[in-house]
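pasting for ref
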Amino acid sequence: MTVRFRLKRATALYGTYAAIAVAAFAAAFTAAMAASAAFGSGKTSAFDDLNRSRPLVSLGSESQCERYGGLPARWRDDPRAGMVHLRGGDFVFGSKLGYEDERPAGGGKTHVAGFWIDQTDVTNAQFAAFVKATGYVSDSERQGGAVVFHTPTRDEMNARDLAWWTWVKGAAWNHPSGPGSTLDGRLNQPVTMVTQADALAYAHWLGRDLPTEAEWEFAGKAGHEGADLDTAPRDEHGKPSANYWQGVFPVLNTNEDGHVGLAPVGCYAANDFRLYDMIGNAWEWTRDVYTGPHQSHTNGDTAAVAPLGRKHDTPMVIKGGSFLCSRDYCVRYRAASREQQEADLPASHIGFRTVSRDAS
């Protein structure tokens, strides 16, 4: 299958989209193990026996994600609460079907060692617990604002490029729409408007780290290879299996996936490693500096609306796409997708999850 991408307001030509078969996971561990026991040429799943009998987060449907309070079982009692263990292994790091900066590293297999990883994005509830325990003040609060998405009017679209982005004074992780807005009803959503430093501060509080780009992609691909990884995520019934943009970006979202903006974590089926929302909903910080061919900011260069005179910090790799990725603009709702984001620039479509690596 040939996939061609044209950047910056051009239509991304994906050819014929194949429906993605997404297995439904039963709550019991045995069903989860059966679903992920084998992939590609009879390999053993990286989702291993260290997960046996652990109280894994049970999500994957609208009713479950709506009921979820945002804190995994045994939160703060179990140092691995809300995480699964992956034994590591070899995988194809990158894609031959996407953008130029996604070409496979080294032309072959890349190895990652074993690690634990959060089943979901870090939620507002989890980040709030961190702030309460430590008194941490986020970068968005220090900077006095953050970059926020809104659906632009026709006049705004005619007046300026990237009209869907606005620097909102007073916007922060706990004031997601600006002054006066709160986290009421949003504690189970991914925390956003956090910088890479904020994400690292939270991770270090728990004795963890942010994933490398390779670790994140290994987890996101969940043992699979092939062209299906580069198609729009849909289940066996043709319904979107992730929170991304359907319709004409940025003015019309048809809400086919059930969510116009951020969704609570875990509203869609997990991948074969029992990880939720690796694709869509919110981009996720990694610990890696962005290197390689630099594509234009097809998620919209958020730095363009930051306060004048603000220095641009080091571009870091973010992964997974967000609720703003669409067929006609971003096309980064794929495990191999990568984007650059200034390390110190908080935005309303970027969150994170943490990892804990095995001792070498």
